[in-house]
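Table S2 (continued). Query chain:
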Amino acid sequence: MPSPKLVPLNLTDDERLSLTAWSRRRKTAQALATRSRIILACAEGGTISAVAAELGVSRDMVSKWRGRFLASRLEGLTDEPRPGRPRTVSDEQVEAMITATLEQEPPKGDTHWSTRTMARSQGMSQSSVSRIWRAFGLKPHIIETWKLSTDPQFIEKVRDVVGLYMSPPENALVLCVDEKSQIQALDRTAPCLPMLPTTPARMTHDYVRNGTTSLFAAFDLASGSVIAQPYRRHRHQEFLRFLKLIDAAVPKDLDLHLVLDNYATHKTPAIHQWLLKHPRFHLHFTPTSSSWLNLVERWFAELTNRKLRRSAHRSVTELETDIRKWISEWNKDPKPFVWTKTADEILETLAAYFGRINGSGH
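Corresponding output:
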């Protein structure tokens, strides 16, 4: 049977203005923004199926909010009251508090809002502020750091490195190379206590430093295996020795494409002269301040989390031996890391992010 004819949905000018504002304002709860877009699309004459496909929601969702709007107009787009204790904080108060959190400067020269200062500012309880912040994923007490690359060849280098990851050259090996410097041989001042039911493993806060080493590593993009060697220093001399180690370990019929950062030891005259004599080596440099592009950094994170963070060593020699054993075990069952984002996707994401921060008023 044909579907029943839809009741026309007509908007007043005031309703259209309110719905448009709710759908576009970044501070609006996303559920309300989606409902507003549904009503605006329906008002343009769209069918339930067409609106659902356009907005990427279900037909039931479109039908529900279209009916709610026809019955109660704008008030029908808010959530219906649930059983239990009546709300003590209105939608207007929630919106005002969220707006203050995101847009207003904290009082008394503070760098960020706390639940107490926000509660005093908005005239509500501290627990209400805490619940609302959790619901909206707001954490004023947390700040993350980031660094912007100023490399004038940033785009070209991103395309070069990512292109190497996404489409490796034939008859060649792609190696992600870097040094993990200043690995400390730390020994705890008391033995570590093992994990027990309801009690995590424990170690002393203080420790004894027994020296440092540096680990040079080359991560094979295809297989996930690693060529690595610890050295007590990380000068160009050690890097040259590591290049010779790679040269000896890889079959001579394969070209070598090395992804490197811009550390000075990678570009000395001695390194340049050696590379001229070994033309199968091709170096690809990541942009400055862009270590996230080098997949060996992901492998270093595995080494840190699975071996170094909880280890105790009485000497550098003991530390280096332990690292070699762990790498040997890794190479018995290596795990490659698969790069999935294209260069265009990375650049589009960065462009969108820069657009946001440039328009933030800071």
